[in-house]
Design brief:
CATH topology: TIM Barrel
Strand content: 15-25%
Distance between the termini: 9 Å
Number of domains: 1
Shape: globular
Structural class: alpha/beta
CATH class: Alpha Beta
Radius of gyration: 17 Å
Order of helices and strands: EHEHEHEHEHEHEHEEEH
Amino acid sequence: MIDLEICGDSFESAKSAAGFGFKRIELCANLTEGGTTPSFGMIQKCASLKSMEVHVMIRPRPGSFVCAESELDIMARDIVTAGIAGAKGVVFGCLTPENKLDLSATLFLAEIALKQNLEFTFHRAIDSTPDPLETLAHLHNMGFTRVLTSGGKNTAADGKELLKKMVDFSLKNPIQVMAGGGVNTTNAKQLAGLGIHALHFTARKKINSNLPADMGDDYSVDKEKIKAILNTLQ
């Protein structure tokens, strides 16, 4: 069966995904802003589950994927910290101001991850590059384990054509292709049929809004969405 990865920001999401037999969690903070690096305590707590791999988002701030030298230093430290906390892998992506792959920054972080014996995944920054297939080839050469992509489009369903080309590339060049972006019950099985290695999606629902002092909203795991997607893949 195809691997499943949940994108989550809580121990509750990690525990639920593990209970449903997911392979991995992409563990983040601030999912409403695309995901940033979670705390040491959150990583360690989720890694204590043992039955599911924890892959940590390495992103020091919301916004673009252009990384200043000071931010690269922070990201390198966070990669080391993630390894110490028990993570199996890390997830990151660095681009130039022209949205091309930042080769030097990416290689620098990849080498840090390699020294920590961590898997490393390039996230959906790849979909902002002018030629995601060319970028995929560079990432393969750098030793990336996998890439999270929607096939250069806003959603994986819209990017099916490029996703298939990425899968074809991976057959001769070992790098896993994981589809993410708008994965749901209507497209999960079709995406799986492309031959991709994994599906990536969030599964949370808002349970409380308008909290005091504008501190954000409360969310819980959307177990019904998980069950529905699992059913479509059977």
